[in-house]
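dumping the sequnces here before i forget
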Amino acid sequence: MLHTGSQHLREKRVVVAADKTFSEYQTIADGALPRFRDAPLLHFINGVPTPSASGDTFENHSPVDGELLGSVASGDAVDIDVAATAAADAFGDWSSRSGKERKRILLNVADAIEQRADDIAAVECIDTGQTIRYMSAAAIRGAENFRFFANHAPDANNGRSMPDEHHINFSSRSALGPVGVITPWNTPFMLSTWKIAPALAAGCTVVHKPAEWSPYSAAMLAEIALEAGLPAGVLNTVHGFGETAGKSLTEHHAIKAIAFVGESATGSMIQAQGAPTLKRVHFELGGKNPVIVFEDADLDRALDAVMFMIYSLNGERCTSSSRVLLQESIHDEFVAKLGARVETLKVGHPLDPATEIGPLIHPRHCEKVRSYEAIARDAGATVLVGGQGLGGGAPDEGSDSASYYVNPMLFTGATNDMRIAQEEIFGPVLTALPFADEAEAIRIANDIEYGLAGYLWTGDTGRAHRVARDLDAGMVWVNSQNVRHLPTPFGGTKASGIGRDGGPEYSFEFYMETKNISVAYDTHSITKLGVS
Ligand code: NAD
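..and the predicted 3d for all of it:
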């Protein structure tokens, strides 16, 4: 039997949780937000807050209640050009600094992020609707990303030695150049640091285009980094929409690569936009990840993990397990237990530590998530939980702010060809599917366009290895929810992405060029030409 966890390990596991009260977090947010209301949020180029050349701005509303939080500079090709030029100008100095020096500065950035962690978390909650119980750790994780890659900066240029009989071959790496980072709105701070930190550690300079629905924490990161000693121009932020600022970034000739996190369809557009300038691309895209629960699993732990991996972070998580595949013998009981837990989830204000599901980012997204209730019914599935009415701390149905909130949903009686089993909903919505045996579980799990993550729960060691091997996914967790370990490769197969992040091997490979130098021992023969 495979051990699925011991009490000892359970007790030792450190859980970072919100450690302040609702009103304390509100006070922190009240202190951090007025600057966004009092003046438009500007781009941050060459270390200087910079308005759009056009003077254009867009409004940013909070998903908590639809309140206008402030206006934001809306960038276009001109602003991107200024930022890309700043990044190109800063590249020579930054990339030629020693790895030790980059490490020192990036560790200072990590410390500075930690000092501002509560501010970042509170702002992120109000800007995105994500709940403080997770966001309180997200800013800390952002600092960890900086610390992790900072510590690898001194070795970034290292290559390999690959001698043959007549030559010594050795490789070395050098920073690629100015790169573009384009990020989504679901956990913006943590995700942007996951891209920006390795780029900077490798010696690249960056132009960051954050999602238009969640611009604030990106602005804070650029300011914090400058204050912590990152030279001006090394990290530049241009706000704006995907089809203007984002598109221009992917097309700019000075930008050598695009690290993109977002929808699969956007990734496809970016690849086309970047083709004329031969952009190197790294894509972390959508997912519809299966969690397979076999009858021989530790079902209590599996239940906890299934709940966590779809109903945490508002279900707005690329690695969420949005399809639960249940062996027939345990299906009914497992679904009943799931349903009872989903019923009790607390929907409410994101700064309330008791809230488990906050408002979704935008009424358009919320509308999309809600629409799957009718899609499920029309397809003949059962809406076991959710949909109608908002409970707990959520606003009254019919009020303006209610258009941001959704009750978590659980669909049963589904088949894998239904839209609820195939499409990324990106909300707190889970589809349960029964399976008879291992072969059918693998077939259902792989019968999907995505291949980001897979989770499986079993007490059988051989089965764990067989299923892990056969799942078509970039990452598989056995008897575990998604627990990130920074050195491991992160990324997806099929429509879920191109390339891997993680550790110096994967992340630096993307942000650096590799050169091989071959030096002869003067022992090899050279074919003579022109000698009769
Ligand atoms: P999105 O693709 O709509 O937008 C992401 C970013 O791309 C935004 O900054 C947007 O402005 C920009 N963009 C849009 N069109 C563009 C274009 N033509 N050129 C350049 N940039 C453009 O994604 P979203 O709705 O913000 O985020 C949700 C998606 O992100 C989901 O599909 C989710 O699975 C995915 N995601 C993936 C991962 C992962 O690691 N695989 C992590 C988080 C989120």
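Residues 131 and 350 are 4 Å apart (CA to CA).
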